[in-house]
Amino acid sequence: MTRPTIPDLAEAAGVSVATVNRVLAGAKNVRAATQVLVQEAAERIGFYGLGTIQAKVSASRPRYRFGFLLLQPHRQFYQNVAAAIREAAAADIGVEIDVRIEFLDDLSPQNTAARALALGAECDSICITSAVHPVVIQAVETLQSQGLPVFALIAQLSAAGLVHYVGLDNWKVGRTSAWAIEGLCKKPGKIGILMGNPRYRNQEMNESGFRSYFREHAPDFTLLEPLSTFESSAVAEEMTEKLLNQHPDLTSLFVSGGGITGAMAALRASGRASELVVVGYDLMDSTRAGLLDGTLKVVIAHPLRQLAEELIKGMVRATRSPNDGVNYTRIIPFQIYTRENI
């Protein structure tokens, strides 16, 4: 068999021979979508100049550097988020993206602000997962004043839409969690609430929606004051033990923030795990195991692939048009998991 020629490639791609020649020459007047068509056709038919086409297409694409500040590296959820971001950035979307991901062990507002400013100095756009604090907001406003697009991931930084946001409708997360607990509890009783930190706007909205549901539909339940875990499994374990000891009639638990592995450890150690209706947050190895052994009844989760894809798309658009005034907030529908559907 003879090797494919340029006319063969043009026919396979559905373009003219002149267009193929322009792609091979690295001409800048060829649309990105057309370049992709020619490259895919070259791969499909085994065109001898595939390497040249790949190099020319890559060189013609815009190149952006995006920075991401995520929470503690030991938490599987944020490792999963990072993996989804890398995969979405590597997808063929017409741009070359250099991904810089930094995990914050020190969650203090001062450290978060300092790292955001440092990352912003090196990147075309940044994304932050952070608690709301004046020091953090000041850093965000400084970056925005310099024309740098800033995105909030998972936890909103501005209720007024002043910072782009990609995440869930957390008020609905709270109400759905409450709906699940009301439906699964055999009778009204006391409900414990664990929050990582009320300064995380998503967790605050989780609790707000949770309480609003019970006020409206199930006022016979008693909602205890939330306890903070400070995003620590060890603290969450201690707080769960405290709830179980102080409230032997506890019927359910809503884990609205970080530390769910600690909460599950305390529930298992108490021997009461199967008695309580526990709703947790995000599907990962530990929460999957919790669903399977009955420690958790329901898990509400971020669809990470869709979350990352929308985030990368928004960052690309905002970077291309930093002064267009468009808000790139995207609300992603959450997933609901039980033992029967994982």
Please give a handful of descriptors for the protein shown.
single chain; 342 residues; alpha/beta; Rossmann fold; 7-stranded mixed β-sheet; 6-stranded parallel β-sheet; 13 helices; 13 strands; elongated
Task: Give an account of the 3D structure.
This protein starts with 5 loop residues before the first helix and ends in a 5-residue tail after the last strand. It has 3 domains: 6-60, no CATH class; 63-168 and 304-332, Response regulator (Rossmann fold), CATH 3.40.50; 170-301, Rossmann fold (3-Layer(aba) Sandwich). The model has no long low-confidence stretch (mean pLDDT 94). It is built from 13 helices and 13 strands. Strands 6, 7, 8, 9, 10, 11 and 13 form a 7-stranded mixed sheet that branches. It has a 6-stranded parallel sheet with strand order 2-1-3-4-5-12, sandwiched between helices. Strand 1, helix 5 and strand 2 form a beta-alpha-beta unit. Helix 1 (6-13) crosses helix 2, helix 8 crosses helix 9 (201-217) and helix 10 (233-246) runs parallel beside helix 11. With 342 residues, the protein is α/β, with parallel strands linked by helices. It is elongated, with a radius of gyration of 24 Å.
